Amino acid sequence: xxxxxGAALRAAALLLGAGACYCLWRLAAGGRRRxxxxxxxxxxxxxxxxSHTMDVDxxxxxxxxxxxxxxxxxxxxxxxTLSNSAAFSVNQDIIRNLDGLSVIGGMLSNCIPKAKEKALxxxxxxxxxxxxxxxxxxxxxxxxxxxxxAPQNSEVQLAGLRLLTNMSVTSDYHxxxxxxxxxFLHLLSEGTESTQMPSLVLLFDNCVNRxxxxxxxxxxxxxxxxxxxxxxxxxxxxxxxxxFFTLCRDSAPFAQRLASLLHHPDTEVKEQVVRIxxx
Length: 279
Known about the structure:
By secondary structure, this protein is mostly helical. It folds into two domains: about 170 residues, Leucine-rich Repeat Variant, CATH 1.25.10; about 80 residues, no CATH class. Helix 1 packs parallel to helix 3, helix 6 packs parallel to helix 9 and helix 12 packs parallel to helix 15. It is globular.
């Protein structure tokens, strides 16, 4: 067992060190980019290193820290650092290989909302990786329970919904969420979808990042497929400010954006658009 005061000091030093390393990498990479833009070679001749890659030892220590401490503030800061690092694909693989997914997923049982929220945010970033999804899927039922039990529109609930959205882009894990559909429908009727719909439609644009665009289109295609009967008619009518109406009916703004995406240079984007239009 760690001595409490010493443990807190070591944890604080670790987190500060991780943050400092990250900032130094960003500064170094920025210097290389500015030098290249000015036509000058970098200060050293070594191969460029990704500014987003955290040292494996640092990530491993952060993961071990989550397992070793009960201090909620330290847990929260460790999860924030892991979440930020998980925004980059190379770190997503490293964290998985260090068994970080199960450790972060274990934090979903934490009774402190802030720690649970940060764990969900970290898993959300990590779920942008197909191999990671295969491991994260074991937590889907628990995340669904969290969404159902959390206060409506709370940060914990929204973090859970973001993770479930990423995990539902393909149909691989839909069966694990089926019992929570009544809850999702309740949130659509009682939540703030009226203010979210305009921003949702803005995702379907040629200027949006290709990976985000493909996921948004796949979500719309899967939603339309499951909301229509064999004749292609919507099974049930929904209000005009609902997700179903916006993405499953031929609303003018959405139809115009789909038409423009037919000219997108990426083949997968065009394939998803055709799926939506032909269902």
